[in-house]
Design brief:
By secondary structure, the protein is an alpha/beta fold. Helix content is 67%, strand content 8%. It contains 15 helices and 4 strands. Strand 3 and strand 4 form a beta hairpin. The longest helix is centred in the middle third of the chain and has 39 residues, at 195-233. It is elongated. The relative contact order is 0.11.
């Protein structure tokens, strides 16, 4: 009796593995799987190298904006030029490039406006009895935000320098007055130190992880339900159930679908890594990360969040796998209750809304301070 049960168990295991292999083979050994992944790989690599593509089609990221200055007896041209070059270089060092050149206008204002090009900005500096300095900025098109920021800060600094010279105020006194107050912060509960930067982390790091996970979950629901509905409509379900239990059949579908989705997620990570490696900007900077990423990483280090990654990363991976399993089980049960794909499409709506609710809750997780949720 025991030998018969053992043989039956071995036979069931072989059938279970066979069904899993057949399901995986149907997913991987198709031309659409290859075509889709080729399209995904090309799209991800192209998106990560968009600067090089724009440059190839005529875009010029190295072009400079010429700032033409008309100094109407303010004697502040040299100070303004030094300020704008200083601000531009400080931004360039933080990887937000602003390329400008400053030169003095040698024509009449009217002639300069008529011959003004799209990459030129005309700045007129005028004296003022109350505000010390006023400026008029003329351009053919809207000035980009960073360039206008450099221009505005440089004009304000120039105005401050002129005001100091007129009122005989030395730079040290002005700096002491305008410098921000020194605040010594004391946090008694050190466990909550990370809450201040959690909003930045949630809005920057988590969407990068959650969005692909959400898309793979939706794909998993449709794949499990679609495969079961296909077998029911083609009557192949009757042959399968006559040779293996419904539980084994459902488990084989769930296992195969989860393996496929996890491998697809790993492929997306590989495509992203390849895109970063061949990105021209990354190669020029010695594979350095963007300033936004380094800023977030610095905040994580300061708050001690990096030390918690030993706990967070395995927990996140476990939760992802458990979520895949839960959604695939429910999708399989719902698909078994329907008779065709149209019925399952309507029945999977609650699952999609549930997943969408979880997505938004994860995006708002930073609002639940101190909650393990």
């Amino acid at each position: 009796m025991k030998s018969l049960l053992r043989e039956w168990g071995v036979s069931m295991n072989k059938k279970f593995l066979y069904l899993t292999k057949v399901s995986l083979r149907k997913k991987f050994k198709t031309k659409w799987f290859v075509i889709t992944n080729i399209i995904l790989a090309v799209a991800i690599v192209l998106l990560l190298n968009i600067n090089s593509i724009v440059t190839f089609f005529g875009g010029d990221f190295d072009s400079k904006t010429d700032i033409i200055v008309i100094d109407n007896n303010t004697n502040s041209y040299k100070v303004f030029k030094q300020n704008i070059e200083s601000y531009a270089s400080s931004l360039n060092s933080s990887e937000d490039e602003v390329k400008v050149t400053v030169k003095k206008g040698n024509k009449d204002v009217k002639d300069l406006k008529e011959s003004l090009k799209d990459d030129e900005i005309l700045v007129e500096l005028n004296n003022d009895s109350k505000e010390y300095l006023k400026a008029k900025v003329t351009s053919n098109e809207k000035i980009d935000t960073l360039t206008y920021q450099v221009l505005s800060q440089s004009l304000n600094s120039t105005k401050t320098t002129i005001g100091m010279a007129i009122n005989n105020i030395d730079a040290t006194t002005l700096n002491n007055i305008s410098s921000p107050v020194t605040i010594d912060r004391v946090v008694l509960n050190e466990d909550n130190n990370a809450d201040e930067n959690m909003g930045l982390i949630m809005s920057s790091v988590f969407p990068t992880i959650i969005l692909p996970f959400f898309m793979l979950t939706i794909f998993l629901i449709q794949m499990v339900g679609g495969e079961i509905c296909e077998e029911k409509t083609t009557r192949s379900m009757e042959i399968i159930i006559s040779n293996i239990s419904p539980k084994m059949h459902l488990l084989s579908k769930i296992l195969a679908s989860n393996i496929f989705v996890i491998l697809q997620g790993l492929l997306l990570l590989i495509y992203g890594g390849i895109g970063f490696l061949i990105s021209t900007n990354m190669l020029k900077n010695g594979l350095s990360l963007p300033s936004e990423v380094t800023s977030i990483f610095d905040n994580l280090v300061k708050t001690g969040f990096i030390e918690k990654l030993i706990f967070v990363i395995p927990l996140t991976l476990i939760l992802i796998v458990l979520s895949f399993l839960a959604y695939s089980i429910v999708a399989g049960i719902l698909a078994s209750m329907t008779v065709n794909m149209e019925d399952f499409s309507q029945l999977q709506t609650p699952l999609v809304f549930l997943s969408l609710g979880g997505y938004y809750l994860a995006m708002m997780a930073g609002m639940f301070n101190g909650s393990i949720l």
